[in-house]
Amino acid sequence: MDIILIPGMWLTGAVWDETAEELRRLGHRPTALTLPGLADGRTATTLDDQVAAALEAIDAADRPLVVGHSAASTLAWLVADRRPDAVARVALVGGFPAADGETYFDVFPVQDGVVPFPGWEPFEGPDTADLDAAARDRLAAGAVPVPGGVATGIVRLTDERRYDIPVTLICPEFSPDDVKGWIADGDLPELDRARDVTYADLDSGHWPMTSCPKELARVLDGLTR
Fold first, then answer.
1. Does the predicted model carry a pTM greater than 0.85?
2. Which domain of life is it from (predicted)?
3. What is the mean pLDDT of each run of 10 residues along the chain (225 residues)?
4. DSSP of 110-138, one letter per residue?
C-alpha cells in the first residue's frame, strides 16, 4: 500500500527512515515528506505551501494511508479534506487535527520569521521519557526552524466528506482513554464528528519513529489490512 509519512514540527522526512525501511520490508510503498520551508530554508513558506506539497504526494499515490505526526496531524487532515475520495485512511501519531479557523501550531514564539526548536525543556516528562541522550541529540541535530507563516497559518476545512474517512489515533505518550475523554469534553471537535475513529496504543513517548520505529511500522501495517 502507498503510505504518506508527514513529519511534525522541526522534522524532515529523514526522521521516518527506520519506519519507512520496515514498511518496505512489510511490502508497502512509503513516501516520507520533507515539507517546503524545511527542505529549502525559505522563511516565507506558508501553511498553504505545505498543504500543496502534501497534495502532490497524495495525487501521485494510489489511495494512500496518510500518516501525520504531532502538529502534522492537522496537515494530514487538511489533505484529507482536499482529497476525501483519494485517501484510504488517516493515521494521527501523537497529535490531533485542528478545527476550521484555528491556528496550525501557535505554541512557540516566532523569532526572526521562524519558530526554532525550543530545546527539550518544554517536553520533559512522558513526551521524552523513552529517549536517551543520544536519541535526543540526533533529533535536535536534525531539527530545522519552521517558517512562521506555517506555524501561524489558519486552518481552513471545507469538505465534510472528510468525516467519512477512517481515522486511527496512534497513542504514544497518552492513552486511548485519554483521547476519548478529550473528545467527550469537546476538546477535539474534528474527531467528535468523524464517523469511524479507532485507536492504537503504543508504549512510547512523542517521537516513536525514533524510539521504536519498527513497532510503529507494524502498527501502521496493521491499518492497511
1. yes
2. Bacteria
3. 98 97 98 92 91 98 98 98 98 98 96 96 97 96 96 98 98 98 98 98 97 98 96
4. -BTTEE----SGGGTTTTTTT--HHHHHH
